[in-house]
Fold each of these.
Amino acid sequence: MSTETNPFESLREQIDDAAAYVDIPADIVERVKRPERVLELNLTIEMDDGQLRQFKAFRSQFNGDRGPYKGGIRYHPGVSRDEVIALSGWMVYKCAVVDIPYGGGKGGIVVNPAEHSDGELERLTRALTKELRPLIGPDQDIPAPDVNTGQREMNWIKDTYETLERTKAPGTVTGKSLSAGGSVGRVEATGRSTMFSAREVFSYLGRDLSDATVAVQGYGNAGSIAAKVIEDHGATVVAVSDSSGGIYNPDGLDTREVKTRKRETGSVTGYKDMKGVETISNQTLLSLDVDLLIPAALGNAIDAEIAEVTEADVIVEAANGPITPQADDILTQRDVTVVPDILANAGGVTVSYFEWVQNRQMFSWSESRVNDELERVITDAFDGLVNTYESTNVPNLRTAAYVVAMKRILNAYTDGGTWPWRAQCREWVEHRFSLSCDQLHGVRLIETPHESIWVIVVPSVHRQELECEWLKFTPCGNMDNATGSFGLNDTTVAERYWGRSRSYSSNRCESSKSLRPPRGEYFGTLLFWAEHTNTNELRYGDEATGRWCRWYGSSRVIISNERRDARGYSSRGLRIRWCTYFAPPIRGISSNGRWVRRYSTH
């Protein structure tokens, strides 16, 4: 079993494989391979013995083109930044392949829940919610259960969020208990979608699921429910396993009794004393000669070595990323049919969507309606996947699923456009300066958290003038220790830029802070930033006020939406340093011909 394969690299490889079959520009492919933002946290809580302890946590928001970010929160000692990013990416494609209006997110805490009391876990969950509060909400990012979390944790998240926000917002989180606004059918949703996927693929292959022998690796929520509903469909479950090992009976296991024994003893091996049952390892289970194999544990369960020896005819992925890319290639060569995770385990997010819809409507559905709607979504998605597989030259169902999803994501991105019109802004910069931002000594154009502010970052040239047609920066002061400033040294710029002169002294490095744009229609703000060579990172600072800050030793630049006087002071008395800013005349934002304060940094 592989533990070395980076899940984020696996995701990127899968996207590249699908992109080869989609007419999509390379720059947009790169965009959909990277998360939009990743939050890393260090949570501090008081333990039962009174000691303080820190826990690392993450939340990744991968892509929101199709709707609010959606994804679970897992508690596991193996949680990592790359794993959370990959899972959030898989969620984007999962929501797209079943065509529900969500983006993708995922979170996790590096913790072993078995080592902590219920009180400690509650404090940890509430501490996480407090930190995520600015990012989550029914229209922003909607968490759900994942590995080692369930209704209890979701109830705590909902209660904490509603308390802090002084509101009632049950749609902030899904997977809640029924009393907290949850949906019937949510607990069984992932296992049920696994069964629907297995049934559809067996039908597609001209076989009957009721005649199949089945092995399930991982007997948690998804695995145990998948085993139960597949057994109810007539199949024979001959082997199951969990982290402590597995059990095998060629005549079949009673899946409900196995679950009961696991609950009593902590492991499926507690069922080993039953007649005809023998214990096996997880690796042995993965190589059993069965009709259907369901990996339902953690990622990378099936690597290249196991793929060479597995004897299953069909694999349906109930876990996220259980097959490495190398193993996937081998299974394709061996004609093993794999139903990818982004379809097979999409039942959880699909019923979460149903729960969210019910919360927003303040109306509850019956369990039969939930299950019927889930079956329709999964079967329609499978049909679309098969149509793509048969109509294109893709090698397997996984690539077909990513092609379907990528087209939907691309359509959403194209139809929505780019805010704040990145292409037009960049085109304007290159036209006005008669230069390419990629060519002039590392000059680059970036976007800040304030959607109306664009930054041209000009590298420090250490007392060497940097000139172009419209811009001329001269270093002032001692740039070696970052105590000086950059000033605008071309008095004609104001006249040529705004059509009339502005009085200021070119001898004062900070005098350009008093320049203000005339009335008219403008696109926001361009900030010309003279970058010091020893400080190469922009930061989003001062969490309380949401100001955009950059640190230079003991100095910082602060750009916010506050009004400033001619000397560059804000209403809070903070000095604006190291920057010169203009408002480019790109049509788009105006209010009665006046400068809109919301979009001004002056």
Amino acid sequence: MSIQLSFSQSGLETNKSIRNKQRVNYIYNITDYITWSHLDNNTAFRIGVFGKDQESLIEEFKKVAAKKRIKNLPVRVVKITNVSEIKDLEIVYIHKRDKLKMEDILPQLTMEEVLLVSENYPFRVSMINFMEFENEFHFDVNVKNINNAGLLVSPQLLTFSIQQQKDWEEIFEKLELEQEVIEEQTNELKELNREIEHQQLQLDAQREQIRLQQRSLVEQLEEIRIRKEELENKLEEINVQQRELARLKRQVGEKSEETTRLTNTLNQQEDTIEYRKRLLMRQKHKALEQEQRILSQVQAINNQEKELDNQLGRLRSQGLLIYVFSIIIVIILALIILAWRQYKRKKRSEAEVRIQNKKLMALNESLDSFVYRVSHDLKAPVINVKNMVSMLKENTEEQENNTLTTKIIENLELSSNRLDLTITDLLELSRIEKVEEEREKVNIQEVFNTILKEYERELKEIGAIVKTSFQDSGTYSSSAELSSVFQNLLTNSIKYRSKNRPLEIVLSTRNREGVTVLDYKDNGQGIDLKKFEGKLFSMFQRFTSDQSISGTGVGMYIIKRLIDKNNGSISLESEPDKGLRYLITLPAKNSLS
């Protein structure tokens, strides 16, 4: 009986197919954030896959291409084996195992509008580079290489990528360590299998030798039994002759001379018979001794066979122990890696806490750790969930209409989009907390008019009216952060406008005792201040039960944080269905001058 340790081939193939589906969906999603200028002249969007062993990935690309377009163009997928074929494509995919050097490829793609998507290369040596670790895909983006190829990339793509080399190298080192451990364990298992197979062959050979010896001993025992029967027959004949001679001796006893002669003859015959009898007795004794030796050998062989069975049992137990030991080793290694990761996170957290300002310590303990976990642990799973929902949606379209399944998929899609929006808001919060903008003399009217142009089309569509009155001499603040304040104010006014009347926004400014006062009002849905007292500027706080209005409840919190960073203050007046009014104060001059 042989003992073998093997992996399920069908399970590996299924896992590989799922990974290829995820790769294809990632590349399809990336095209939403990349701009090609020449696609108006194209009849198809071309994707090239480099490598000799990429048939399964190419087949997955073709399956998706039969259902989905890119940039409203049909997708054509080709296999490439030479770097010179890359120029006739929009996207090319390569893997590090194909041993292509980036310095040989990137110069050829200059202004060719070809997006290079690679896998398992070092940090930011490609354009977009993937790496799979712990059943998730991570990627980095090199904007400079993308721009050198004549392509434009949306900044939103950067929020989902790994932006620090140390984060990439940490994951890359863990991936290499995991691959080395798996390779060592695989080699050890193969070596153990070979040793067990060798011992099994030796046991089989010994079993065959014992079987031959047993057959030879059985034949010898049969031959001895036959000889023993022959000897017993001869002894019986001698006994018969002795009785006959005794009878004849008595008959001839009456005749002296003849008797004497016959007696001598009989004596001689009797001596001869006695000699033959002793000879036969010795042969019988030798046969008995030989039979005893054979029986001893049979007993020894039986003992040897039992010992071999015990050895085989020990080998089987040893194989099982090796398998259990291997599993224990894997579990121990997993626990060590987990503990190491926890230790690294703890050390990193301690280092961050030591360098934080005492004024921001309480906020950073709750916000920074949460944003870090979202940006590094949730952004890849969110994309995976969105990809899986897209794949489920495609599969259900091919099957019979199922209202429950469609409703479930729509809820999953709504939840994943809401989580994606939450992550984006949290990343914006992280940027606000960590980036210190330059303070300078800012013209409020210029800043507001610039932001207003971005919302001009949307305000016109809903019939909104915007009134302004600027009577200030400016403020000493950050222009970028003041722009973000106006963006959030306008967004909230549009989002929470009344359904019964056109939106009206009024902004006025004035100077008062060394500060600039901003008075911002709208006639929207308003807020019940008594109901939400103490929660107005809290994070994730929504003030409406209308689920049709999208939002995460972070907008007012961002406004408050930006005003605080610029040494200002903010208050709110509002009643339900009567709109709201923000009173914001900002320093009119540099407090350090």
Amino acid sequence: MLPRRTHVFPLVSVSLLAFLPAVTGRAAPGPVGVSLSVRTHTGGETTGEIPKNMVMIGRGTFRMGLTKKELQKLFSPDTAQMYDKLTAMYPDHDETVGDLLVDIYEVTNQQFQTYLDAKNLPPSQDLVELNWSYWNAGKKVEGLPPGKEQHPVRGISWYEAARCARWLGKRLPTEVEWEYVARRGLKKDQYYPWDGKGWDAWDRSKCANTYNSRQGQDGISPWVVGHWKEDVSKDGVFDLCGNVGEWTSSEFLPYTGYEPLEEKIRGRGRKTFRFEYASDDKVVRGGSCHGTALQNNLLVRWGTSPRNAMEAVGFRTVMSALPGMDQLNDAMKRELTLLSGDFRDKLDMSNEAIAAQIVHYQDPRDNVIRGTSYLAFTKVDKLPTKWGNLVKRSVEEPVPLGILTTSSRIVDPDLPAGSYAFYFKGKGESKEQKEARKNAGKSGGEDKKEEKPKVLSDAEKRELAEQAEVQRELEKIGAVRTPRIDPLDVPTDQDILIIKNEAGDDVAWVPANVEEVRPHATHMSYIAGGGANEVNGTAAAGSALGADPGPNDLATIQFSVRAGSASRHPQLNLNLQFPPGAFEPIDPPAEDDGKKKR
């Protein structure tokens, strides 16, 4: 029998900022030297700080790409061999980007090494060969070269960059986001971060490129991030035009309206130029220490296999301004892949629907992120009919209500860290439960006869093969499959929420705690411990949630869904218990090496 919730704790409605030990007020126990950057979203409002070395970029619409006339200015006999590649910047079109948090600097070797150490991963052979090796006393040594800690990491594949970004609590930018960040505030004919019009504004002395990058025994080397003070966006984002190219999350596809271009080339007559795109490739943006005038600008784009690791390609990360959105999108993309299309379409990813908190643990000496934690939830936008009708129908077919993803293990119900879908089942016995109960009664007093092996149909064999493939994919991402609920373990005398895991199995249930309210935003509240040790999670009290937490920490998510045309709608209270101090940092900071804060 799975653990179930049969009790309700007293709750206080507070900001989820209190889900972590407070930065001010009474000092919480934990590693000395680790600071918290907490961003919380509850009740439709976001509070907290953004991680150090990030900047907020406001929503906006911009012109992306080049017109045919602008592109033709690049064509000359000297660039003829690159015509096909240059056409990838064509045509121009409008794009809109939402509020965004962006890394000021490219991800450094030191940050990437911190990630590898935390995950207990060795550096890849490509990283060692292309970046992390150096000559010492005539011998080649494998490892991060001394003095290169603040240089951008390079020689990593797209997969490595994406996994590191996820561990940082962030993500890779889309191609549209990258160009918006780079060109925001510039005139249409500005193709470089500094002043000047058109292609004539190129100045090789203003960014890290093949002309001024240092060449030595280890090859061409990029510079310390942020060194080139004129290679910076209007919002203070460095190294967009040079240093290392940057992976994006976008597939390498033509811009909308793209068509081959026919040009007359001196001495070669008319020729049609077209670029061969590949959706399996990922877009790389930005110039590099290996680049020249044609490659080091804010519009050039090219694609390569995500498996490739290149000497002059690294990455920077971004976060959606709405906390929890990236984690929820990632959960649907990587873990909750078996959600029906109808369920996905109904999920509400708006400001009012999401409740979440994300915490970054940063070393204040160098702002290197030591780890992250998160909890995020969202609900469906509306139900297809009135609540009373759905309560009856849900006895046989549970109704999807929302999804949750968390970096922490859940104590009650007993579930590992991961992503889960929640379904409502009304009070009553389903046909499946009736059948299971009857079968259990029949087999209770009878001698079991030896059964012959069942002959599987082709359809059953295919289903088993598909299940095995799902399990293999789950193991690749480190997901833990929890046991499936037996129908007899689900109560019939109360309304409940059934929880499904990433494989689509029913793995737990909790009381639904349904009330009727007017529509409101999704809220979270938090209490650390219970009884004599209870600490209410109020930010104003300067709570130290890890000081004497008692048995477990309790989080409550209150959310309502629109049902029919009534003015009052069902509100559900989801109560979850987490381990004491589940969201506190557990690894001590590195020893002080005398490095100054960047």
